Amino acid sequence: MNRKWFGTLPITTRSSEQRSWLAGWTGQRWICLVLLGGILLSGCAAAPPLPEQFFQLAPASARHKALQTRMVTAADQRELLSASAAVLQDLGFHIEESVGDFAMLRAAKERGAREYGQEIARVFIFLLSALGRNTIVIPVDVQQQIAATLVVFPEQKDASRYRVRVVFFRKIWKSDGSSGGRTIPPGRQRMEMIYDPLIYQQFYAKLSKSMFLGIHQI
Amino acid sequence: MLNYSYRFLFFSLVVLLQACAGSPQKPPEDLLSLTEAQMKIRSYQSRVYDATEQKKVLRAVVSALMDLGFIIERVNVPLGLVTAGKFARDGFVEATVTVRPKGDERMEIRANALFNTRPIEDPKAYQNFFAAVQRSLFLRD
Where is pLDDT greater, at B11 or A8? Predict the structure, then answer.
């Protein structure tokens, strides 16, 4: 009986030529294939940035400059800077740096950064992973610092006209997460420039109101 | 017995080798001297412009840095110094620029930049920066 079983084995192997070419693959071959795929895909990952790109004008830089800059008519540069600081304070910012003779301000405020979308994704992945062995809690944005840098440029030709440029940006910190017993570190802090026109319009509207200034878009 | 001899030999060797360890290394004497490579880097980090007013050039530098997406961190007018930074993909770029009078009618701008605390030594990066400064100076004029 045993002999007959061994005897049938080669026949079975030969007849397997008709089966799918993947049927004979062992676990090791699959692992090799997955690793090879991983190596090939890693080639598609974004290359590190070239240093020359850091100092290249972006195509959108002129648009961003127009968004951030206004032409202001004011009697005095110091008064304009003081009014700008007061508006930033009204908006909840604290002034971190001020250079009077250069007419520059740097301000910041802390805010929560939690978003519904990220929280929903976190709960969904947690519930999905709870079906398996390890529960996964993905890191989400928790804290952000909204910062502003303001510089007043006097116009060479007209002493009563100034170019005010304010730049808003935010730094975001993530929470940590976990996968089973392991902690997922919070990852790197990231920065985003704020290009929402409404933010800039609101700022300049408040500045205009505070000083009864003539503010014009350039 | 033989085993004990080997152990003794091994410990003797360790003691002897410890004697070979030198005293703590002193910093090299030429630490602050400029190498040829450093001189070359300095040459493309500097540029001289026809300008008389330091503050005006400083404003052009600040304006150029803002156009390039940098956040101005500090400005020191008496020293003609600007420090700025920006987040890039995979890291943080820091730039320090100084504006100093060179003679009566010229200003020297010196820039050096770091990416993730490592110096940027690519001349193209500085060429691009000075192109932005020149544009800013020209537009302001």
Answer: B11
- Single out the residue of A69, A166, A150 nearest to residue A105, CA to CA: A150
Question: Is the pLDDT assigned to residue A6 strictly greater than 50?
Answer: no
Residues A65 and A37 placed together within one structural domain of the fold: no
Q: Is A149 on the interface with B (CB under 8 A)?
A: yes
pLDDT digits (tens, 9 = 90+) for B87-123: 888 788 999 999 999 988 999 999 999 998 899 999 9
Cross-strand partners of A106: A97, A149
Q: Choose the closest CB to A49 out of B59, B88, B129.
A: B88
B80 Rama sector, left if φ>0, alpha if ψ -120 to 50, beta otherwise: left
Query: A161 and A75, same structural domain?
Result: yes
Nearest-Cα distance to chain A for B131, in Å, is: 9
CB atoms A52 and B124 under 8 Å:
yes
By residue range, what is the domain housing residue A21?
2-42
What pLDDT, on a 0 to 100 scale, did the predictor assign at position A49?
A: 73
Contact A106, B83 (CB under 8 A): no
Domains of chain B and any CATH numbers: 51-141 (3.30.310.80)
- The dihedrals phi and psi of A46, each to the nearest 5 degrees, come to -60, 135
- B69 closest CB neighbour out of A52, A58, A156: A58
Residue A123, domain CATH? 3.30.310
pLDDT of A65 over the 90 cut = yes
Note the pLDDT tens digit of each residue in B14-68: 777 766 665 667 877 777 777 777 788 889 999 999 999 999 999 999 999 999 9
Strand partners, B109: B47, B99
